[in-house]
Each structure stands twice: as C-alpha cells, then as structure tokens.
C-alpha cells in the first residue's frame, strides 16, 4: 500500500467546526461571546471529533459588519478579549488536538483603519493608492454603474480627496487596491503575524472581490433568470467590479507564505451564482490555495439529488484539480433544517443531512449548533443587528437568525450562553436542543454526529476517496466512495415517501452507518446508509 503526500495532508477530508465567537459563549456577562468563552467550550468541539475550528473574525473593528470590517488586522477587539486570550485559545485547541483556522479579509477594510484614514487624507500621501479611488463623471455622478452587495452604488464620495472610493459591501468597508504590490505585502505581513502565533490556516473571505478592473468599465445587465431581485446588485453581471484574473497571482504569493510555515491550510470563500471557474482557478495545481467553497448548498431552496450531483461533479478527482469544501449552513446562510424541510420532519431530516454532509468528497464544514439541529430564529425588526437584513427588510437573508446564541444548558439563564442579556435573543425552541440535554440522550443528533464523525475519521474512502454518483432521481441519491482498497456505497432518500432500493451486485456487504431506519431494500423518508463491500 503506497501512502502519497495527499494522504499526509491533515486537512484533506477534515471536519472543520465553524465558530462565530460573538454567539458561541460569553465569559464576562456583557452579552457578547468572546475568546475566553470559546476556549472554555473547546472540549465540546474535541468531543465531536472535529479536526479543526474556524474562527470568524475577532479582530479590532467598529463592528459595522460585525468584524468583517477590520480596523487592525493584527489586533483583537476588546469585546472579544486580548492577544493573550487568543494565545490561550491556540494553546488549549492544540492541546485537544484541534487545528485553528482564522479568517483573513483581503478584499476590504474598515473605513476606520489607519491605512484608509491616511489614504483619504490627500491624493499624494504614502497610501494614496492603497484603496480604489476614482474621479466623478462630468456631471458629478459615480465613475461607473457598479453596485454594492448590500444595496446602492458601490461608490461613496469623499470630500477630503474630492473623489469617490469603491466598496463592494458597506460604505464603511472601502475596497483595498490589491493590484498594488505594497498592499499585497501588508496583507501578507498580517497573515504572517498570525502564522507566527500558531494558527494552522486561513479561510479567505470574499476573495473573488479582491481585485477590480482598473479601467472601471460598466458591468453589463444580467439576463432575467426568474429569481427575485431584491438589490440593484442582482441586476448586473459582475464582470468588472470583481474577479480580476490577477487574483491568482496574489494567491500564489499567499501560498508561498503558508508553505513556508509548515503548509498551513487555506480555503477560499467564492460567492456568486456561477463560482465554479473561479474556485478551480484559485485552487489549481500546487501553488495556489488548498481548497474553496461556494454557495451551492448555502442558499439552495431545496436539497435534491440533482443539486448534490451537480455540486460534487464540478470537483473531479483529477490531477491539478483543487480540493472542495462543503457547508450546508454558516454565519451568512439560514439554518438548513428551516430552509429544506417542514417542521414535522426536522429531526429525521437533520440526521440524514448530517450523514450526507459527512459522506461527500471534500472537507465538511459544520456551523456551530448544526450538530444540535438548531432552527432558524425569527428576529423581529426592532431587534435586528445585521445591516443587510435591516437594509433589505423584509426580503432578507436573515443572517441574524442563524447567529443566535449557542444553547449550552437548558435550565440556565440564556441557555448557558452567559449571564448578561445576549446581543441577539436565544431561540424559543432551542432549550430542548441544548448541549447538556443532548449529551445525556443516546439517541440525540449530537451523539449521532459524534458517531458519524468517528466513522468518517476511520474510513479512508470517506476521508479522501473518489466519489461517483450512481443515481440521482427525484428523491433517491446513490454514490460510491473508494480509496486504498475500501469501497463504500452511500444511499439516501431525500424525500418524504418510502423508497425501495437494493444494492446491485453479488458482493457481500455490511452496514457502516444508517439513520432513520434505512436498510438494504428499504429507505424510509429522509433516511440514509453507508454500506461497505466485504472481500
């Protein structure tokens, strides 16, 4: 049996647990989760069997976009703690065998960052070209038709320079000019700062927004595909405000840095309706990022066999092709059990969904509380915090509804999140799903998830193997996973009617895992199983 370099990559096939620190655990009673709160609950993640945690931003920030507007790449915001608290978190995670991945945001900063404060001060300062500035048109209007993701033009007038600056997101998030080599150097220096503090990798935020068309050409209109358009951003093809081909040159510099620090793992977030080409470009070969994920499942209105087949077949097991990562939920997308199934079938669906995610070829990213089956919380308008939700009310992605406090103890104030009033309300139905209750229940989703992750860790085929979709019907999904002599068949019923299904062939088989009564011959509603060929 030959062990390849790929077999030694800790991240290949890893289970990564995403922590949104603001909502994970509050250690000081101010209603906001923090780094000591994370550290105190890392045992929970280790007990799941996860390989790594991904920490959403905890950097110094005015919190206009809750940390994705960074004012100091190398600082910890006081609401989250201190650098010493971060060092303690790293030490505890590593002691538990957990790798630590943190966000890096190279597309934009906060308008409170010292770089932007200097850049806006004049047209001839040392950082004058560190952001994207442009003159007004002759009539005073913005230089082109680019629109912001959060609504309205992607340009804001600044009287100090007498120019517009570009922002793909909030006006408080000016876009960096990553075409500038000095800006790249500064971004890489920030990454090196965290590598030297012991982080094991980076999740690179919105990387396809990191470079613009220097000619500032207008975006063409997007054809009407029938989907609702709630923002001006939805009316354009985003050819020029993002996705410049030189992004990959920066990523090659980034890869050289991470390789120099023990091969730290890198995964890109790539948004948009057709991200596949960019995800492949950003991960091609051995000189760019290790992995990427898009929004195949995160914004999908339904989980179907066709969706799974389409998503996984864009990542063939071929030389030079990058490694995929998959998420059904995250801090930007509503809870899957609230999107994909009616309330009467949520428990069964959550179990089936978990097995499916852990059987896909690629890395599995779990969002905090997904292992508990948490539902989306309906946040009333007067309690909304998310600027996107407020701006687009009531046609909102409801990011606040997935960011509610983690329920640790059913009978404790605020479900054990902390003593102070939480920054978002706890879910009305989350008490029954609390960690302490599920830990004591052998049949809980939490304990099922622990067992399924252990199965995945022990299975070369599930961890790293090739995947071939055999059947993708209206509700029936069947695929194989194979690696180093192990061959598995995975069968799922994604619908609410019982299906008859028999594994083909004369081979002897054994059931490695089954949920909701699945067995060879019968797949009840929302069920699934993993079969191993013997001999």
From TrEMBL:
Q: Where is this region: Disordered?
A: 213-232
**Residue span(s) of domain Glycosyl hydrolase family 13 catalytic:** 18-403
Q: Which InterPro entries match?
A: GH, GH13_cat_dom, Glyco_hydro_b, O16G_dom_2
The UniProt entry's coiled-coil ranges are none
Keyword annotations for this protein, in alphabetical order, are: Glycosidase, Hydrolase
Which biological process annotations from GO are given for this protein?
Answer: oligosaccharide catabolic process
State the source organism's domain of life: Bacteria
- In its keyword annotation, does this UniProt entry include Hydrolase? yes
GO MF annotation list: alpha-amylase activity
Family assignment from sequence similarity: Belongs to the glycosyl hydrolase 13 family.
PANTHER family under this entry?
A: ALPHA-AMYLASE FAMILY MEMBER, NEUTRAL AND BASIC AMINO ACID TRANSPORT PROTEIN RBAT
Provide the protein name.
DUF3459 domain-containing protein
